[in-house]
Amino acid sequence: MERTVVDARGKPCPLPVVMARKALANLAPGAGLEIVVDDPVARQNVCRYLDTQGISAHVQEKSGDFRIMTGARPEDAAHETHEQAHGGHAVCVKSNRMGHGDDDLGDVLIRAFLNVLDEIQPLPSSIVFYNSGITLALKDSPVLASLRQLEDHGVRILVCGTCLNHFGQKENIGVGAVSNMYDIAEALARASHVVVP
Q1: 8 A C-beta contact, residue 43 and residue 17
Q2: Residues 194, 93: contact at Cβ < 8 Å?
Q3: Residue range 142-157: average pLDDT?
Q4: CB 46, CB 68: distance < 8 Å
Q5: Domain interval for residue 182
């Protein structure tokens, strides 16, 4: 099988995903793709992207590089479904508080919002956390149980990897997937509307 090779080593987030997406869009039916990255987070992000496109992949690690190899591209892999292109609503959590003014009140409000979200129908298709909002997706979060329940009900939870690194919390994520700005921007852009508490 013919394979197109994409060398994304040393590329900052989200470029490996963008490069994989572009290569996939130009890939001939029946051909495979090999994406080479040198970062575990990039490997995870590319694999997750391929999975959302219905493309199976396996990873070989050698000398600090990850070779992500796909099988042959199905005939319809380049065509998005209506559901992929027009997801439901998304929730964008950009702070560990809700609103401006009193910080204690903001803490109470964001917890209440996330704790009742599972009771509101329809559920969001995704919840994205970035900046100080990522603290709500950590292991010691007061809303961890509610977020895990939402995830169990199929809500995609994306937590900004750059933000986790910035706050030194990468090892403390308690729910969701460590994500990148490509996935976050795509989730927000494809949503029918975005709720920002």
Answers
A1: no
A2: no
A3: 95
A4: yes
A5: 83-195
